[in-house]
Amino acid sequence: MNLPDRNKTEDRASGRLVTKGPPERSSGREAGNLRLQVFLAHGGVASRRSCEQFILDGRVQVNGRTVTTLGEKVGPGDEVRFDGLPVKAESRFRYIALNKPPGYLCSSSDPQGRPLAVDLLSGIPERLYNIGRLDFQSSGLVFFTNDGDFAELVGHPRTGIEKEYLVEAAGSISDEFISAFSGGVTIEGIRYQAKSLIREGRRGLRNVLIEGKNREIRRVFSHFHLHPNRLIRIRIGPILLGTLPEGESRPITEKEMATLRTMINGKGRQHGNRN
Predict the structure, then answer these.
(1) Which of 14, 55, 196, 202 has the CB geometry, 3.0–4.6 Å to 208, for a possible disulfide?
(2) Ranges of the chain with pLDDT below 50
(3) Which long-range contacts (CB under 8 A, 24 or more apart) does 184-191 make?
(4) Which domains does the chain possess?
């Protein structure tokens, strides 16, 4: 397979994913002043958008000074900390798929002390974080990375990446429910709509979402008094959960990454992004 030229950093600046090499590749960062949120994303803290919020929340320090406004730039000689811990630009990118069990939180920390999904990843020296969330009681496929640009593209609704779930409800699923969720339903002022719904028995449903609002499936099912007993995410874009055991992880393969890049770039063109 032809790999992209790692020296074409202008492609990264355009927001395209074409410059990514294979999983666990060198980041190829060059020294220079960067916007603080970009530096944090390059340091494996979170996506750029999430890092912007961290700055506004006062969780970031530069040379001992808390920064709470956007626009700050940092260079190689600056000391940057997030929640008191030092942040360094990553030298290697990782892309990991985890089968999250129920009872694990998709977060970098939890004041309640609940188990964290990221702690199931072992033997990886880089600091990784989850792309998007899978709620505490749900299980299935979650991506982890230290590449903020990749996280931004995969996690942003504009790319239209499908997420597929298997849901087992507490009761029988009616045709009225399927019609309502397929056509769009508004709950407490928020509109939810599935891309497709396929029956899996009397109480089961295969559910495909695009945007995936917070706890969307649970909110819609509960609204119709169909509380989910089990909720498993089995696919993100072209990448399948497959036979990966609960609690286990694996690198996202080079072939999977190439397919995902093609899908993201195609969606970008459909939404009018410049290439």
Answers:
(1) 196
(2) 1-23, 26-31, 271-275
(3) 185/220, 185/223, 187/219, 187/220, 187/223, 190/219
(4) 26-86 (3.10.290.10), 95-158+239-252 (3.30.70.580), 162-236 (3.30.70.1560)
Structure confidence at residue 25 (pLDDT): 52
At residue 257, what are phi and psi to the nearest 5 degrees? -60, -40
* Spatial distance between the Cα atoms of 172 and 174, rounded to a whole number of angstroms: 6
Q: How far apart are CA 57 and CA 46, in angstroms?
A: 14
**Contacts of residue 112, Cβ cutoff 8 Å, sequence gap at least 6:** none
- Dig out the tokens for 130 from the structure: 């989850």
Q: Which helix (H) or strand (E) holds 163?
A: strand 163-169
Catalytic residue positions, numbered: 135
